[in-house]
Write a structure and sequence with these properties.
CATH architecture of the largest domain: 3-Layer(aba) Sandwich
Number of strands: 14
Strand order of the largest sheet: 1-11-10-9-12-13
CATH superfamily of the largest domain: Nitrogenase molybdenum iron protein domain
Radius of gyration: 25 Å
Helix content: 40-55%
Order of helices and strands: EHHHHHEEEHEHEHEHEEHEHHEHEEHEHH
Number of domains: 3
Mean pLDDT: 95
Structural class: alpha/beta
Low-confidence stretches: none
Number of helices: 16
CATH class of the largest domain: Alpha Beta
Distance between the termini: 70 Å
């Protein structure tokens, strides 16, 4: 990881890199969007024929192989899974479900004034698609993180897609009782979920992470089908003055091994601390080819002039994962997908088993939203109920506002109910 100082001779180059990192999502979109657009249009027009063509081309699925995976196959995978894996899945699922249940908003009403009752209803989406990556690594944990909050929300139809799903992913699907699972991936899977084909009914929303082409496809369909977020390559920022260099380096390498495009960053005011972390990262990544590539190509350690500058830089970067030293640091955190506090809060614990979702905003989107939650699978419907006393009280003011906007029909709809104004 290169060490860069925000002051001194290299300051200009450092601040240019920071500006580039703040706009880091643009380049990936530009590369992937034309390809994704072509695939989406083909599947939208050609349906199953186009979908199968891309499944054969990208995933090696023959014409004889059914795209839909049977429930029996998923249940069999769960029965055949090693006991240690089954136990770990059950523990993770329990914690994820408990966390989602705590997030669940409630329906409520209250009297705004005498004669006016207002409130909200919470209703689940009818159908969602969960994208579970299965490229460089199988990610059964993503099945848990996307399907369980949907189940807690009460979604009736949960559709899972994954290219060449691993036995572990099938096992988790069997454990969760998933009924619809298709062995498709990439932009073609996003298109099938968004628009439907002869064999796959469209969904209301698509959630889950993927590569640049999946992210580009989600962006392209987002006006026709809701999406959760544009999740790109993994990111981690550690902002520390007192942490353990080995632990920090281990977390940086752990996230870096996801993808050669992963972005590992360390921020501190202490030059010696920065060099120690850099040495540990190099040592730990030496025999991890993907982590070695991403730390060498994208990894950076920023040495700032002050703690406030470190904090400001952290919020500017709006990282997917963030580690800080202590509870008191939470006061200054404004932009982050998920925050890990203290030396024992290893990032992989959050990837698998803590309970908070690991599907998190990347590319700076943590400035405007948090990670996937049960709320992503819900609709909030507002309710208002007037009695005569309430409309008599508020009607005149509403008429005044309607007339100010020149909407006489609005005003008349209130007057006909016996309101003067």
């Amino acid at each position: 990881m290169k060490v860069m100082h925000t002051a001194g001779r290299s300051a200009k180059r450092t601040h240019a890199l920071i500006a580039q990192l703040e706009n880091r999502r643009s380049e990936a979109d530009a590369r992937a969007t034309p390809v994704a657009r072509k695939i989406i249009e083909a599947v939208r027009k050609g349906g199953d024929v186009a979908l199968r063509r891309y499944a054969a081309r990208f995933d090696g699925i023959s014409q004889q192989t059914p795209l839909q995976i049977s429930e029996d196959e998923m249940k069999q995978a769960w029965r055949e899974a090693p006991p240690a894996f089954r136990s770990a899945v059950q523990t993770a699922a329990k914690n994820i479900r408990r966390f989602a249940l705590r997030q669940m908003p409630k329906s409520w009403t209250f009297d705004q004034i005498p004669g006016l009752e207002v409130g909200q209803l919470i209703r689940p989406l009818e159908a969602v698609g969960c994208y579970v990556p299965s490229g460089r690594y199988p990610l059964p944990s993503t099945m848990l993180m996307t399907a369980i909050p949907a189940q807690v929300a009460g979604v009736q139809r949960i559709v899972v897609v994954s290219p060449k799903p691993a036995p572990e992913t099938l096992a988790v699907a069997g454990f969760l009782g998933i009924a619809e699972f298709y062995r498709i991936g990439g932009a073609q899977a996003v298109a099938a979920l968004a628009y439907g084909t002869e064999s796959i009914a469209r969904v209301d929303k698509i959630v889950g992470p993927g590569n640049a082409y999946v992210a580009a496809a989600k962006r392209l369909v987002s006006f026709d089908c809701a999406i959760d977020m544009l999740a790109g390559p993994t990111e981690i920022v550690v902002t520390s003055e007192t942490g353990d260099p080995l632990g920090i380096a281990a977390d940086l390498v752990a996230q870096a091994e996801h993808d050669p495009d992963a972005l590992p960053i360390f921020i501190t005011t202490n030059s010696a601390f920065a060099e120690n972390v850099s040495v540990e990262v190099k040592r730990l990544a030496a025999h991890n080819p993907i982590a070695r590539k991403s730390t060498q190509s994208n990894g950076v350690i920023f040495v700032t002039e002050s703690v406030p500058e470190s904090r400001d830089l952290t919020n500017r970067l709006a990282p997917e994962h963030l580690t800080v030293d202590a509870d008191s640091d939470l006061q200054w955190v404004e932009n982050a997908g998920s925050v890990f506090v203290g030396r024992y809060s290893a990032h992989p614990l959050g990837d698998y088993i803590s309970g908070p979702n690991h599907t998190l905003p990347t590319g700076g989107w943590a400035k405007v939203r948090g990670g996937l939650s049960v709320s992503d699978f819900l609709k909030l419907i507002t309710v208002q109920k007037y009695q005569r006393q309430g409309i008599k009280k508020l009607g005149p003011a509403a008429i005044t506002l309607a007339e100010a906007e020149g909407l006489q029909g609005h005003a008349e709809a209130i007057r006909v109910r016996g309101v003067d104004g």
